[in-house]
TrEMBL record:
This protein's name: Methionine aminotransferase
UniProt KW keywords: Aminotransferase, Pyridoxal phosphate, Transferase
Organism: Flavobacterium tibetense
Cofactor names: pyridoxal 5'-phosphate
Gene3D superfamilies (alphabetical): Aspartate Aminotransferase, domain 1, Type I PLP-dependent aspartate aminotransferase-like (Major domain)
Family to which the UniProt record says this protein belongs: Belongs to the class-I pyridoxal-phosphate-dependent aminotransferase family.
One Pfam family cited in the UniProt record for this chain: Aminotran_1_2
């Protein structure tokens, strides 16, 4: 009997495969198609000839843990103990799965906010828990009345995602104050904060749980080198959490992957000495603005993008089709792949919206926009 009877092939795989079959421009899956920083590649080349090819310590390479601690203090003012409060993971998704399976037991409930990333619920189900879905407002702001109403005696965890995939929404100060008020009333709840796009925010700054004094003692923060450094295929992420939470997570991690790629850890540790992560934000802001300018004469309505490298569009003036069918037609008839937003909802809420990834070369964005402007 299947443990995940209702889980099918990921929408990302479905749309990418369809794009490949029809030779469409793939703006669906969230990965950059431009070159990796040559300075990082130089680090890899040099390290390949050094003695860095054996297991690292289970929690991570000590020098990388120290660099993360330094960056966290610089970015958020949080002093983190690199020996007890950081764990290197084989990508953020593995970190999320591991954190959930360390703390969720049979019958526990986990609140997730729809639309939500599609790895959350399967991870909860594998742990024997139940995902309790609470919809964000139509403008993708959190509805705290509904969040609080969803809390029960079985609620063990709340998952938030900020900056938000798939919508590009960023939480503000008032959002965090409301969240803190709720969690003060329910001290049994662990907060899992998915912040993999933390270095990609625009007009409104990203507020991290790392900077919230009332939250750090109950929060597992998920970060991603894959997203921040444009190396998604390396599958390199990390968790930051207080020692009492991380100790349980390490118990699962050590029997899931034990330790993460040694060459990648050494390369990133060297690269963090020379890269300025503020440049990441500036680069993606330029791409966001350029993609928006290319689509200004299209019939697509662009929704606000406050962070991430995703642009959500409303196509309701073009078609009344549901978003999954329209996304497939966009590939087969118009040659551009996107992700329908309804698949991120438990009840498949359909606002006639699609998500495009603009982490692409200018040439790719131009070719895609040319096709989209003809619709």
């Amino acid at each position: 009997m299947s443990k995940l009877p209702n889980i099918t092939t990921s929408i990302f795989s479905v749309m990418s495969q369809l794009a490949n079959e029809h030779g469409a421009i793939n703006l669906s899956q969230g990965f950059p198609n431009f070159p990796v920083d040559c300075r990082l590649l130089d680090s890899v080349k040099q390290l390949l000839h050094e003695n860095v090819h054996q297991y690292t310590p289970m929690a991570g390479l000590p020098i990388l843990l120290e660099k993360i601690a330094q960056q966290t203090q610089k970015q958020y003012g949080r002093k983190v103990n690199p020996n007890t409060e950081i764990l290197i993971t084989a990508g953020a998704t593995q970190g999320i799965y591991t954190a959930i399976n360390a703390w969720i037991q049979t019958g526990d409930e986990v609140i997730v906010l729809d639309p939500c990333y599609d790895s959350y619920e399967p991870s909860i189900l594998m742990a024997g828990g139940k995902a309790v879905h609470v919809a964000l407002n139509p403008d993708y702001t959190p509805n705290f009345n509904q969040i609080e109403a969803a809390i029960s005696s079985k609620t063990k965890m709340l998952i938030i995602n900020n900056p938000h995939n798939p919508t590009g929404k960023i939480w503000n100060e008032q959002d965090f104050e409301a969240l803190e008020t709720i969690l003060d009333k329910h001290p049994q709840i662990i907060l899992l904060s998915d912040e993999v796009y933390e270095y990609i925010s625009f007009a409104q700054p990203h507020i991290s749980c790392n900077s919230r004094e009332k939250l750090v003692h109950k929060t597992v923060v998920v970060s991603s080198f894959g997203k921040s450094l444009h190396i998604t295929g390396w599958k390199m992420g990390y968790l930051i959490a207080p020692e009492n939470l991380l100790n349980e997570i390490k118990k699962v991690h050590q029997f899931l992957v034990f330790s993460v790629n040694s060459v990648a850890q050494n390369s990133i540790a060297a690269y963090l000495d020379i890269v300025n992560l503020e440049e990441v934000k500036a680069m993606y802001q330029r791409k966001k603005e350029y993609f928006s300018s290319l689509l200004q004469n299209s019939k697509l309505q662009l929704l606000p993008c406050e962070g991430t490298y995703f642009q959500v569009v409303d196509y309701s003036t073009i078609s009344k089709q549901n978003d999954v069918d329209f996304a497939k037609e966009l590939i087969t008839k118009h040659g551009v792949a996107a992700i329908p937003i309804s698949v991120f909802y438990e009840n498949k809420t359909d606002y006639k919206r699609l998500r495009f990834c603009f982490a692409k070369t200018d040439e790719t964005l131009e070719l895609a926009a040319e096709k989209l402007n003809r619709i």
